[in-house]
Specification:
Shape: elongated
Order of helices and strands: HEEHEE
Largest sheet: 2 strands, antiparallel
Structural class: alpha+beta
Distance between the termini: 47 Å
Number of strands: 4
Number of domains: 1
């Protein structure tokens, strides 16, 4: 994992918080996750911006999808 973290730092992607047990990134997960090898995570916590009533977007099948519920 240390090698992966250093590779991300070389791409100017820095951890928001880091200790011996875990690393926390505050980034757009759709842009960040492809930079990691498959199967490396024990947990992913996502708190998406829902913005469901004002033409926002969501993630469906790994792709950004427009959500426009205004009528």
């Amino acid at each position: 994992m240390k090698k992966i973290i250093e590779n991300l730092k070389n791409q100017q992607i820095y951890p928001y918080f880091e200790n011996d047990n875990f690393v926390l990134y505050l980034e757009d997960s759709l842009e960040l996750l492809p930079k990691f090898p498959e199967g490396i995570f024990d947990m992913i916590f996502a708190d998406p911006p829902y913005l469901l009533s004002n033409g926002g977007f969501t993630c469906q099948a790994g792709k950004r999808v427009s959500v426009n519920n205004s009528a």
